[in-house]
Design a protein that fits this description.
mainly alpha, 2 domains, 162 residues, single chain
Length: 162
Amino acid sequence: MHFKIALVSCLVLAAACDKKSAGSTGGKSDLLPKLEALATEACACKDMACADAVTAKVTTLGEQNKDFDKADLGALQAAQAKMDMCMAKLNPAIVAYLAISDDACKCNDKACADKVAQRFAEWTAELTKSGTKLRGNDANVAMKAGKTAGECLTKQGTAIPQ
């Protein structure tokens, strides 16, 4: 289970998260500095193998800290988001997606937005054809970028590609 999934599970099952992390003395737990260190490690990665190794460490950390201090949640999510972006930039498919997303928001007219929407459709078709599965962090980054791009396309009167 990915750390992010553990965090979401705790939000849903709030009663299970009311406990402070083991070893916490009413202040912040040591989970946050550990996750921030892993985010720094992830951002130093130069390839997917390194990112996968960091992901394994994050998964273990999440499994060991299911009862984390809810006061840390925002900071933990920020560290996770930083890590997600760094690791997603190692995936060529996500790099391409982010470029298309950026282009969507540079459009000033419907013709431009329609062309970008077509590029999104082509990207999706290529991903589907290749059978590539996006990792959790890749999917999260793509969803955020896609939401922003969708708003930009809609502003120009272009339907969001499905």
